[in-house]
Structure formats: structure tokens, C-alpha cells
Amino acid sequence: MSMKKTGKTATKKRPAAAKKASAATASGAKAKTAGGGSRGDKEQIRALSSMSGDICEDAKKLQSVLDMIKDASAPLPVRMAALQTMLAASFSAANFDACRPDFLAALRSVVADPELEIRQRVLGILSREHDGYAQQVLLDGLREPAKALLPPEKALQLLSYDIHTEAYPVARQIIQNPPNPAAKLEAMRLLAADAASAPVFEKILRNKREPEDVRQLSASALHGLDPQKLQEHARKIVLDKSEGDQLRATSLTAITQFAKHPDMIKDSALQKRVDELRTGEGSAALKRVSRRFLAKFSR
Amino acid sequence: MAIEVSINGSAAPGARYVTWAPSPCSARLQAGAGATSPITVTLRNKPSASGGTVVFYSKATAAPANTLSLTLTVGTPVSFFVAGEFGKASVSDGDVALQILNGTTVLSETPLMVRIRKNANTLTPGERDRFVAAFAQLNNKGAGRFVDFRNIHTQAGKPEAHGAPGFLPWHRAFMLDLERELQAIDPSVALPYWRFDQKAPALFTLDFLGSSNSNGTVQFSPTNPLQFWATDGTPGIIRRPLFNVASEPAQNVLTEAQTLALGNKFTLFRGMEGNPHGFAHTSFGGSISQIPTAAKDPLFFLLHANVDRLWAKWQKKFGRFNTTLAAAFDSNAATGGNRIGHNLSDTMWPWNGVTGTPRPPTAPGGPMADSPSARAPGLKPKVQDLFDYQGAVAATSWLGFDYDDIPFA
Amino acid sequence: MPEVLVGRDRLSEVQFAAYVAELKTDPARSSLLADLLKEDNPVYEQRGTAATVRMRGCILLAFEHLGLPGSALIYVLEELDNGRDAYLLAAAARVLRSSAAPKPAMAAFLIRALTNIRDRDDIVNLQNYGGYSVSEPGTTAVREILESLRWLGVNARAVLPGLEAARAKPDGRFSTLMLDELDRTIDAVRRSAPANESPEDDCCGFLSGLGAIRLWPSSSRGTTRIHAAVLEDQDGNKIKFGDFFRGQPSIVAFFYSRCDNPRKCSLTIAKLARVQTMLADQGLENCIRTAAITYDPEYDLPERLRGYGRSRGVRMDGGHRMLRATDGMGALRAHFHPGVNFIESLVNRHRVEVYVLNASGEVVVSFERIRWDEGAVIDQAVKLLTPLSSEDGRSLTVAVPPQPTRRKEPHSSPETDVSPGNRSVAREILATALPVVTAFLPKCPMCWVAYLSFLGIVSLRWVSYATWLFPLFAGLMLINLGSLWRRGLRRDSLAGFYFAAAGAFSILALGMGLNLPFAAPTGVVLTLVGSLLNAVSPETLRGFARAAPVKQTSNASR
Fold first, then answer.
1. Which CATH code fits B120-397?
2. How many independent structural domains does chain C possess?
3. Total beta-carbon pairs less than 8 A apart between chain A and chain B
4. Best of A42, A257, A288, A294 to disrupt the B interface by mutation (most B CBs within 10 Å)?
5. Topology classification of domain B3-114
6. Is C96 a domain residue?
7. Distance from B69 to chain A by nearest Cα, in Å?
8. Orientation of helix C302-310 relative to helix C267-281, angle to 10°
9. Mutation site, C310, C311, C343, interface B, largest B CB count within 10 A
10. Nearest CA-CA distance, residue C361 and chain B, Å
11. Which residue range forms the structural domain that includes residue C287?
12. How far is C23 from chain B (nearest CA, A)?
């Protein structure tokens, strides 16, 4: 039995792939895929958009679409349309199950495609299927950034589709030492699946030196893992005049939406504070959620 | 004089929701001080500058009118019908009031709501906020009843819902089940739809279904409770649009006109499962683009509300509400029928609770949610129970929802 | 298992594959391979699910060359029964062909696998570690399953009609290529033997020999600290393990709400709901408790437990609960030995498992890996009940205590409890008095020690010529105290010991030492009370207190 190294395919084109991974952005790719294209391309795309229903009934047709996906020299919009056709067929084609194995194998063959948009789309599709190969490629890239086929924030996001991966240690490392702010946020989102990490989020939420978006995400994560604890912290944050408007609005939203009614009715200190916020000099958002709170929990 | 008014066969406030379809109502003069019998009363809308408007029918088949005269005797309910006036839906709960007058004296006033599914892009801030609040509550940080909806629409349930003629009825039931759960939280909520063949700048915003960042993670405003959305134990929503959500429709989708032109037979029309339905899903990267994960994104339900609206519009256009019409469904009778769950008389999983081959291994969620106002489609609906949603063929089939741009049949 | 496989120095997957390859070539050590398939094997600690899939596939395929031993067959059938990974299913289907002989019972597993995987199939390369097929040709799970059906030949005769029906009306889930394979399979089975020569299906015997139903010997049941483990139910009520599981037999299933294999947790809990319905149909819902315990207690908070149970139709009340361990998950694992492993706090792989517990909370039978039958589980629980007839002829049930032969302690009396609401107070008293009387019959050397200790020592004062016996009886009394101490620890109650100790003090120090007149009789009484407390189970004692209100409730409910 041979020991196949899963990153092998990826490493063939690693330099180009890694370079693109760090340079390109999703929005850039969007512009590239959505716009432009020759008349021939547009006709091909139109043809592709009408064939999802019967794509799996004709082996030749299926193969031609899969070849389009795999053809690195084909125009990107056409390849993306071919991917969309196959995905649409996965929803609607009665016999998609029959062509699914070929589709997945075709996707695995292009995870290291020169085009970031293709890599991102393909690794996304495979990740949603909890594909072990895709997960391994993404983890390899996080552990060894030189191998990365996608930016770390994207890799972490795709790994979060499966709570049973080995991404937790690397996510913790990234939270400690993030390559960029987006990667830290995605690492936190991934780690939120680990119930034992609730203290990590509690600590971040309490740390006023952390950026507000980081603390906001900590609040969401903690709310799922330890709702009572989040409600306690949310109350403290609303009462704390030194806290920023954004986090106070988030905290008050958590209370307004999920707190127990009798507790809030009885909480004079909170009622008084929220009444001040309603008429104070805070942001419009904070005033809005203050009004909502008082409408719901007014005595 | 006291008058008891029943809406949708019930005097309970929870039943006071109407659509474009005539709802059965009654008024009964109660015995007591001041009651004189018989008396002639007039039914009308309470004058209001905003909100919905209802119209009255003496019989379900009569012409609608803005007012209706009834003669009441003590103790005997007198029936009549009420419907929302097409195009004049409510924007909040009880913003319509049914007044009963004797001369100029108001004898009773019953608050109502013309509760209609609307284009998500046109909701008022109040409608939007109530919808997201109810949805966030249903999800309850990943621990709420929404878990069942997420677990129903997966690969295991795919044969029940996709790739066969039952696709449209099954998803109509799925949407209705969810909508009723939302209404159990806030009865003023109706499921809005995402018209994916049009731009929808008001939908993909921080205050509504969120705005995707460049990585495809959805961002919310700090006042939006959907920021606490979680599925499968992970917070947040992954949705990466492959088109410009502010200025473009979804990618490569058929327009409404093209969809309605697919054919006047269900066998042809159900091709819409591929395009526009499949293409609307796959106009994004992220959860919504694949069956196993699609229902993780709340947008899924707005997308499917529009798929359902298109079917309803097609039904209206070609008169396809009655399942006895061959063109109303694809029975495949010549080849021995469809696979289980896709024939008119089949019960539908998961609401039927049937498990094991050929059905999926489990049926999460239990039976269909009931409604205080609508009796149909029952706890274990059959495919055929989802066609006559307005009760046009049989009033008892009324499902209790309507769309803002499709009048009563 | 070499030490190097676990902990910080655990093997990388490359090393693991090499280790398996080494075992494969060494017949003397190849028996270790089956052990590696146990989910709780330390090799799986802190591995992701995808890694456990790769590792298990590697192990399964090792049997292709070695031949599939009987000890590993259960793992292959388990995969076919409820697996959902194309690679593992393909590997299991292939390696099944390496078993000693085809059996008719295998066909049903292959058909189930076919159903399970048809909408999740994938191309896999069984030559590669992990099985990933990138650009090279490979096989698929469906193909391997069909080939195994062909290998079964005449043994697949029973499933032939199903295959023919699938072929007659394909629902689009077979590709053209697979339809050809299906044709070949049908043809092979048809030609394997005439229709009237189907081999006898030894289904039951085959399954019972697999280890899917395991009887727990008494020696492996007892753990004392389990009873102190704190559980929380779907409504946030905290209860000790011993308080819930002692007194009646129980049926216990394990699950976790984030399990993504519907044929495991979701199905298990739905089946538990069916068990509850069947118990209610037989009037046993108050005699046999049911519980579902989560593997993921930190995430599965009460509202998640409640939601998961509710959506699968689980009855949830005082005797039927969804539970998580808030303190004592380690004790739970030690008690049940669940087939599960973790990455961080998350399950990476688990088996299907349901346990039947006796009225002492000890595991008597477990149903493992293969889809379990609700009726069979109930039968096992019912075996722990004995019928009683009531005055009005109603059928009554009493929880049967653990068999005396299983008991390790002297002085142990059968613990008895009853179904609430079905008994008279007289019966309550009788049921409790009998074991007490039984308790005082000297049944073993230790009993004689106890009796001799306090009776002998009390009577010594009247036996003037035998004062030399005093040290002997004092020693026996101390032995008795030691015994009570040990037993008290196991029961989580030292009340009996304390009474007996006070009795001993009264007899020895106050009576014999200070010669106080009432010390010896007082000591005897105290010792008797201590022995009584030790003999009767806490549930039985509580039964006295409960008897009257239970009766009222019962009447009200009729």
C-alpha cells in the first residue's frame, strides 16, 4: 500500500497558487467572474445554464462539463458557469447521485488550480461535503503557509463546516498570533464549536483592549456555549459607561432578544441605564435597541 | 349590546389573520342588557390612514364589498366572509379593525391583520425587524427549534424533497411549517420572499439578512439579533455572493416571465427546479449553494418563498389549483407513478413520521405545525394537500398564506 | 499497544500506516489489528474524524491480505450497517470478501450499505492511504458492495428480489455503468444456484456470535464512584447517577446532538422513543426507566437535550430523561466503557450503543455497533423484573435485584424496588421486611463473624471461665466493622458503619471496660441497627416513605 501525500497535487503549482492566494481577494475574483467575457463565452454560459436538469443522463455531456471545469486554459467565467451547472444539478437532477463520484473526483483534481476563484469555489464545495482530502489540504496550508492554496481566513472558514476536523490547535495559534485580523475572527468562529473554549471567549469579551468586532464575535460565541455567562457579561457591559456603543448595542440586543422577561422587569439598575441610553448621546443604533428593550421589558 | 365576532371559525385573537382569500366569519348578538332583536348592523373597516384594508362578502362566492349589512338576532351567529383587499396588506398586527355599527353607533371593533408574504426588498423597517427577531428566536443561538429545520433539509432527506415532482409541494410544506413556527413567536410575521430575478439591495444589508464581507462571512449590525445565529454548533453564516447584490439579480437565473413561460403543464414547469431554483442557490458560495448545508442560511427560506411564489403565480396563470387536472401535477401514471413521497396521495416526510427504507432513517421535527387560523394541511400532509393554498377549490384547503402580487384565484 | 502510540508521542498517520503494515506482515501480532478498531483505543485520541476514517480504512484493508478474522467481522458489518463514508464502506465491502466463508446474513448488511451510500458515493482509491482519488482511476463503494454481493452468490439469494426491483425501476441513482454492474450482480446471484436451493439463513446464530449483544460478567460491572456522578436532565434538574439508576432496571442510550450521521445518534434516540412507546403499551413505563446520555455534555445544555429529544418523540419525565454529566464524565466512561473518542471536547467517532442496567445501576447487557432491535432490548430489561400477582389480579412487576451469586459482599441483601403506584402498603412492607430478615440469616463466613462478634462478646460476662475468648470476639467485631466500612463506601452511605461502630464502642469500652449496666444491650441494639441499615438499600428505605403518596398518585391516575 502506498502512502499518498495529499498535498502532492497541490505542491506542483504551489508557487503560483500561494502567490495568488495572498494577493487576490474574493471581491476581485467576483468582478472577474461576473463581468466581461466574449460573445462565445456568453453563449457557452447560456448553454450551460439550461442543461442542469439532464446533465447526468448523458455521459458525454457530463464529461464535457467536467472537462470545462478542469481546463485551466478555459475562460474563468465559463469554468465558473460549468461549476454552477453541476451544483444546480446537485439540487435538481433526479440522477445526480449517479454522477456525483465523477464530479467530486473532478473537483479534487483542481484544488490546486492556478485561479484562486476556482480553488476557493472547489475547496468550498468539497468542504461542505466534509471531504477529508480538502480538509487535509486546507490544514496543511494553515500549518505550513508556504503550501497554502487559500488565504488563512478562507481556509479556516471552510474548515468550520465540519466541527470534527483537527483545526482547533491551529485556530488557537492563529488567535494568539494572527496573520491578519480576518484570520483571527475566522479562527474564533471555528473555535466556538469547542465547548471547552468558552473561557477563551469570556476572556476576550472582558478585554477592553481587544477590537470591538473581536469582542462582538466573542459575545456570539459565548452566547452559544454558555448563555447565562454571556447574559451576565452583557448586563455589565450595558451598565459600563466606558464601553463603546457598538458592543453595548450588541450586548443590549442579546439581552432584549434572549433574556428572561421577569428578570429584566425586576432589574431596576438596568432599566434605569437603558432609559438613559434611549435619550442620551449614544449612537442611533444604541438608542434603537434601547427603545426595543424598554418596549419589551417596560414595567 | 355586545356582539361576539368569530374570525376563521374562532373567537380567539390568534385566529384574526386573513389573506386575499375569503375567511369564514360570524357575528352573534349576545343576550344581555340593551340587546334588541333583530337589529341591522353594518360591517366596515375602521377608517385608518395606514395599514391594511379588508373587504366583505355575504357568501364566499359573492362579490367583495367595502361594507356589508347583516341582520342579527340574539344568540344566533350570522355568517359572512372577510378578506384582505388585494394590494392593501397590513404592515403590523391589528392595523385593521372590523367595525360593526348600528347606525352611527359602533357596537364592536375587532382588530385584524391582513397577513401577506411580501417582497423582502420592500418590507418596512418594522416588518423587517419583527421578522429577524422571530427568526433569531427560532434559532435561539443554535439551541432552538430551528435545529429541526436545519436537520430536515440534508442529504438524507434529499430524495423526499428534490429531483422529482414533489419538489414544489414538499417545499411549500417546509416553508409553511417554518412560517407557522415563526408566527408562534410573533403572529404578525409572514415569510418574505427574495425575488432573485431582481436586485434586492434592501435585503442584503446589515439590518436584514446581513452583508457578506470579502471572505464570505456575513456581517450584521449590532442591533440585529441574527448576529447570534448559529447552526451545527458554529456561530455565523457563510454566504459569498458571486454577483453584485446591490445592483444585480442572482447569477444566470431565469426571469419570472421566462419561468412562467416554461409551459402550462406541471411536467414542464417543474423544470424550474434546475433554473431558476438551482441557479439561485448556486449564485453564492457558502452554505446555501449545496443541499447538505443550504438550510443553515436563513436566506434559504426567502429563496424558497420565491420559488413557491413562482409556482403559485403559475397556478394562478393556468388555473392549476385542482389536483384532478392532469396538467396540475406530474403523476407519471403511465410509468407506474413517482417514487414514494412524490405521488399526490403520498404523505410527506418528515411530517408523517415514517422512517426507514425507502424513507430517510429518521424524521426530525415531528408533525406539521398547526395554525390558530388555518386547519389545512393537517399534521401529516399529503402531496395533494399543498395545491389549493388559497382554498379556491375547497375552502377547507386554505393554508393561511398569500403573496402580495397574486390575487385570490 | 506500544506506549509510543499514545500521548504526546503518538504516531503520525504516516507512522501509523507503517505500524499497521508491520502488524500485517507478522502473524503473531496481527491479532492486534482488531483491537485497533475499537473507538476508545488511544490511537484515536485528538484525531479529527477524517483522520479516524483514514486510519480505520487502513486497518480494515490490512485484513484483505490476512483474511478477515471473526474478531474483526463485527467492525466490517458495523460499517456496512451504519457507515456513511464512501472510503470506509468500500473498504468494508471489499474486506468482507476476505472472510472465511460467505454467509447469507451478510447479504442484508450489503443491501443496507447500498441504501446508505447511494446518495453519498465517491470514487476512492483503496491502494492509497486515506483512499483519496484525485486523478487516477479508482473504485466506488457501490461497486465494491455489488462485487461482494456477487461473491456471496447463492448466499445473496434472499436479497435478489430487491435487486431485481431496483433494476426494474431505477430511480436515477445508478449511473449507466453501475446499472451494468447491477445486471452482472443479479445474473451472478441467479446463476449461483437454482431458486429452490437457497442456503438456510442462520441470521440469528450469525449475529449472536458477532458480539453485537454483550452480556457483562458480574466482575466487570461494579464501579462505586459512578453513583456519585452528577447528571443534569433536559429541564436543568440535577440528579446523582445512583439516585436515578438504582431501584429499577434502565435502558440507556448514548448520543450527542451534533452527530452528523443520522443512522447513529438521531436514529438511536428515535428508537429509544419507540422503546418508550412499547414500554407504555406493555404497562411497563413506570417499571423500567430510560435515559439518553450525551457524549458531549459541555455543548449539550439542557435546552439542547430537550430539543433533541422532543423532535424525535422522546418522552421526558421523572423516569425518562435526556441527561448530561455535569460532574463525573470520567466515572460514566469507566462505568459504561462507551465506544467513543474525542478531538478536543468533540466526538470524532463513536459506535451505536445501548445498555440495559439492573436495579443497582450495573450494566447487564449492551447492544453494540449493529442496529439494535427495540423488542430485544426491552426483553433484556424485562428479564430483570419478576411478575407478582396482586389482590385484584392485576399484573405487577418488581425489579429483580442482582443475583446473589453476583454479589461480592457478605451481608448483602437483595435490593428490591417496585413499580410505583401498583402496590399495597402491605406489599411494600413485605417486600422490605423479607430482605431484612434474609439479611440477618448468617449466610457466609462474614455473617458468622458478625454474629459471633457481638453476641459472643455480650455473653462473655456470664461465661466467667472463658474470659480468654474476649480478644477473639473483639477481633471478630473489628472485622465486622471493617466489612461494614467497605460496604458502606460502595453504597455511598456509611450510616450502618457508624451505628455499628457506636455499638462496638458501647460494648467494648463502656460495657466491658467501664462495666456500665446498659452499655452492652445498647451496643447490641446499635450494632443491629447498623447491620439493618447496611442490609437494606437506600431505595428500599425510601420506598417506605414513598409508599403512601405513591398509592394516592396511583389511584388518582386510574
1. 1.10.1280.10
2. 3
3. 181
4. A257
5. Immunoglobulin-like (2.60.40)
6. yes
7. 39
8. 70
9. C311
10. 30
11. 213-389
12. 37
- Residue C192 belongs to a domain: yes
Chains near B, with 3+ CB pairs < 8 A?
Answer: A, C
Interface contact flag, B353 C313, Cβ < 8 Å? yes
Burial class (CB in 10 A: 0-12, 13-18, 19+), C337: middle
Q: Taking CA atoms, what residue in B is nearest to A216?
A: B222
Contact C346 A98 (CB under 8 A): no
Q: How many residues does chain C have?
A: 558
Q: Is residue C400 in a domain? A: no
| Residue in A1, A99, A108 nearest the CB of C127 | A1
Task: Tell me which chain C residues have a C-beta less than 8 angstroms from the C-beta of A133.
Answer: 130, 132, 134
Rounded to a whole number, what is the distance in angstroms from the first to the last CA of chain A? 73
- Write the DSSP assignment of A146-176 as a string of letters: GG-SS-HHHHHHHHTT-TTSS-HHHHHHHHH
Residue boundaries of the structural domains of chain A: 11-162, 192-299
Residues in chain B: 409
Contact B366 C307 (CB under 8 A): no
Per-residue pLDDT of chain C (558 residues; tens, 9 = 90+): 343 344 446 789 999 999 999 998 887 887 899 999 999 999 999 999 999 999 999 999 999 989 999 999 999 999 999 999 999 999 999 999 999 899 999 999 999 999 999 889 999 999 999 999 887 789 999 999 999 999 999 999 999 998 998 888 766 667 777 889 999 999 999 998 765 666 666 666 677 778 899 999 887 776 678 999 999 999 999 999 999 999 999 999 999 999 999 999 999 999 999 999 999 999 999 999 999 999 999 999 999 999 999 999 999 999 999 999 999 899 999 999 999 999 998 999 999 999 999 999 999 999 999 989 999 999 999 999 965 544 444 444 555 544 433 333 333 332 222 233 333 334 434 434 443 443 444 544 444 444 555 455 555 554 554 556 666 667 777 777 776 766 665 555 667 777 777 777 777 777 777 777 777 777 777 777 776 666 554 444 444 443 333 333 333 332
Rounded to 10 degrees, the C-alpha dihedral C497/C499/C503/C505 comes to 70
Those residues of chain C whose CB sits closer than 8 Å to some CB in chain B are 112, 115, 119-120, 169, 171-172, 257-258, 260, 262-263, 266-267, 270, 299, 301, 303-304, 307-308, 310-313
Q: Which three cell numbers stand for residue C337?
A: 466503557
- Are residues B363 and C270, on separate chains, in Cβ contact within 8 Å? yes
Cell readout for C373 is 432491535
In this predicted model, what pLDDT tens digit does every residue of B221-257 receive, in sequence order? Answer: 999 999 999 999 999 999 999 999 999 999 999 999 9
- Give the integer Cα–Cα distance in Å for B151 and B153: 6
Eight-class DSSP state of C73: H
Residue A1 to residue C61, Cβ atoms within 8 A: yes
- Regarding whether C272 and C203 lie in a shared domain, the answer is no
Interchain contact, B143 vs C171, CB within 8 Å: no
Beta bridge pairs of residue B3 = B29
What nine digits make up the cell of B84?
384582505
The edge-to-edge listing of strands for the beta sheet with C213-215 is: C213-215, C363-368, C353-357, C250-255, C289-294, C320-327, C230-233, C238-240
CA distance A299 to A137: 56
Chain A CB contacts of B170 under 8 Å are none
Contact B278 A89 (CB under 8 A): yes
C405 lies in some domain = no
C15 shares its domain with C154: yes
R_g over Cα of chain C: 29
Task: Examine the domain organization and report whether C272 and C314 are in the same domain.
Answer: yes
**CA-based nearest residue in chain A for residue B165:** A94
Burial of residue B17 (CB within 10 Å: 0-12, 13-18, 19+) is: buried
